[in-house]
């Protein structure tokens, strides 16, 4: 039976969930949300919810037995002749929301289907499953129903059972306890490889868009897989794997050769991620500027022969920049008019993010196929 306080808590969670859903598009574009991220939860400021609390303050002000005149204001500094404001106050409450719940809200609002892992998943985890009964064990695992049944069987077989006075008293021999077995559970693992152009045309504003999109991509994929590894590649004319902090802070200068990032991703997959054991997601972020038509052709070849066949999805996100040509997305559309489609739909998916308001639609574009 659910207690009153539990009902109130559930109701409060429903209110918070509704507020998050209402303002989800705004939360998607707010960078400070990333700064509030914890290990498995994120702290979200929710407006216009005020929790009633007892407030303890200083009651020493005012007129008591000491000095003072009749009509003097109590506990108030100044003349007291100012007018009161007429606007409502803004109540802000920070609530900790599990990332899994945030991902579910995202899925509901974007109408995202759950992802169906591909390939053979030979990675397993071992967990305990209580599926048996045994005559010995700790008191905490006593199985009362089975113990009662054993005692009843014993008394019936010995002629001790009285239907008019059906008292069942278990003895030590009747006690039964739950037992466990080790069960191997298939575990679907995934790797996300983020690639980003860090040439001179990709400024701080573009990097912030990439950072926001990567956070929500990571949140959604972690909701669908038991284990996630994230790897990061940056490039200008050369590419290198870096850590997460470097990925979002480094800024280079010079030209852009996108094929260098795709080749680096291929080498990374060759060395660490067998496609029969891993679900592979590749995301490339750029302003669409590339060094030459020859490098465009090299990119198409790498995608067609190396990366697309082994990955669940290759997502290309083009962010707006005043200095980039924005032409690479057209190269992909011409080379893969159907998006290298298979039974689940396009494997190569592109989106454009010009402002933070476009993040909502970009995420829906990437994951609406449930790949």
Q: Looking at the structure, what is the overall shape?
A: flat
- Poorly predicted residue ranges: none
Mean pLDDT, all residues: 79
Through-space gap between termini:
41 Å
Question: Helical stretch count?
Answer: 11
Strand order of the largest sheet: 7-6-5-8-9-10
Provide the β-strand percentage band.
15-25%
CATH-wise, what's the superfamily of the largest domain? Answer: von Willebrand factor, type A domain
Listing every helix as H and every strand as E from the N terminus to the C terminus, the arrangement reads HHHEEHEHEEHEEHHEHEHEH
CATH architecture assignment of the largest domain: 3-Layer(aba) Sandwich
Care to describe what's here?
The protein is an alpha/beta fold and 371 residues long. The protein has three domains: 1-50 and 91-110, no CATH class; 124-184, no CATH class; 188-367, Rossmann fold. It contains eleven helices and ten strands. The protein has helices at 4-22, 24-28, 32-35, 99-110, 144-157, 204-224, 244-249, 258-272, 293-307, 328-335, 359-367, and strands at 41-47, 92-98, 124-134, 177-186, 189-197, 227-235, 239-242, 279-286, 313-319, 348-353. Strands 7-6-5-8-9-10 form a six-stranded mixed β-sheet, sandwiched between helices. It has a two-stranded antiparallel ribbon with strand order 1-2. The protein is flat, with a radius of gyration of 31 Å. The two termini are 41 Å apart. 26% of the residues are buried.
